[in-house]
Structures are given as C-alpha cells and as structure tokens.
Design a protein that fits this description.
Blueprint lengths: L3 H5 L2 E2 L2 E2 L5 H8 L3 H9 L6 E2 L5 E2 L2 H11 L5 H14 L1
Antiparallel strand pairs: 1-2, 3-4
Helix pairs in contact: 2-3
Protein name: Helix-turn-helix domain-containing protein
Pfam families: HTH_17
Organism: Desulfomonile tiedjei
Length: 89
Amino acid sequence: MTTQLERVYQYGGDKPKKLLDSWDVATILGIGRSTVRQLVKEGRLACVQVTKRTRRFTREMVEEFIKSETVRRTRSWDVDFLEAARIVR
C-alpha cells in the first residue's frame, strides 16, 4: 500500500524525478494552497523560490515540516490520562 506522499512523489533511483508544487504539498498535508503559502511566509515550511511567484518543495522539506509540527505526548500527560481513566471507572 502506497502513501499519498509516495503517489505524488515518484523516484528515479535514489533521486527525485520532480519537485513538489504547492498543490502537491497541500494534498499531502490535507490543507489548502493558501495555508501552504502562509506556512512559507511564516518560515515554518521551507521552499525553493523559483520565481517571484513560484515555489517548489522537496520531499525532505515536507517531511521536516511534518516532524517539526508533530506533537509528542509527555509522560505527565500519560499519567494524568491514566489517572483520569481510573477515576471514571
């Protein structure tokens, strides 16, 4: 089973065949193109500025954004959640 990212982004050996455009990135992330532009403007999503109005993205840039935005649960949250579950029972 292939992921959405793998369907949009195809490989030629170990090098990418193409850069992703904002439509591709928006599809991968499940957001709109305007949100992609906003993330770039805020500096949260890296891009290659091809022309004044054209941006392209590498798979690594998108993966790095996903990693940076991933929220990890802390141990205290786990303990609080388990404690709350015991109280409810």
